[in-house]
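User: Run a structure prediction on this.
Assistant: Running it now.
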Amino acid sequence: MPSDATPDPYADPMAFGQRMQIYRQRRGMSRPVLAGFLGKSPSWVKQVETGQIQPPKLPMILRIAELLRVRDLADLTGDQTLHVDLFIGPGHPRLAGVKAAVDAFPLTADREAPPTQHLRHRLDAAWTARHEAPNHREVVGKLLPDLIRDAQLAVRQSNTAAERRAAQAILSEVYSLSQFFVAYQPDSALLWRVAERGMVAAQDSEDPHAVGVAAWLTAQAHRDSGPAHFDAADAVTLEALRYLEPHLPDADDNVLAVAGALQFEAGYTAARRGENGTAWGWWDKAEKTSKKLPAGYFHPVTSFSRAIMGAHAVTVAVELHQGGESVRQAARADKAVIKSRPRRARHRIEEARAYQLDGQPDVALATLDKAHEAASETIKYNGYARRIVLEETEAKQPERRQRASELAVKLGLLAA
């Protein structure tokens, strides 16, 4: 074989450090930034990447995988017996049906589209079901295919410009609901199709609420793609806020809530960057917006409300890796009741991250148990929860290891 031939990665496996460096560079993250998140020095990162020291133990590898958004642990370690999807959950049984409805573009129809008011009622019922059901992906996945097809048909059969705009607003929100279902499942291309079509439909609707919701979800999709896409997340968020600004003086509660949700998204992205002042500054703006809403108000899509701001504070502190502050915020946030079961479960996961950061792994596991009780399908698809559980299955304390193993079985990470 010529000396310049491409090496066989399985005959001469790439070292852990080389894999780590590739993923770090793909995410656009410098050694000092990664080192800061890991609580290590830049020289330690360099020594790992260049093979001067041995690869770290599993808990540190899991933290590195989380920060670099590595989907499959085997891709980072090179160990083909260690296939664990961290940030992609299992494919839901109803994913194929939702995908078929999204991908279909029939040009003819042998039936009449439902009225937009009828679609509105069905969509509202679907949002309610999502917030109330612990198996919300199953419930929403069952409803989505017909909703998608009927909303698409309503747009195609619109007779006037006003009817078409109203139908596009409904279709955009149906795509928003679809994005909640598709997120963290093994079809990232479908997620982006849904996000982009939702944004296009929202723009065609000229409805401020629809545009704000679509932008809120699109920004999340960018941010979850990794640090290299944080600028794109900010661009969408800030443009949407500029668009909404002239509407806010006379806005109803839903539009005001979307603006608040977008303000928090800007803070969330800043926290992921490690920008402490900017992150809390945006959180303050979002809190001021929340206080303009009625005390019991709860936005059906974003969950934005007065009650959610405590949970958002936990998220900001956790993303900034402020262990003590995140635990303090968790204690304050527990005074408020979050109506949505999946959103409540997500908050429990963020609390678990806070306790893990603060060196309280037993409390973290207990909090993850609460998340599982609130909405089992939320924790099953959450990469942060999966990472904590996997890390604690290697704990030295037998009781903690047993508890983590039992939870890992519930999440499908370990065989029963």
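The two ends are 47 Å apart (CA to CA).
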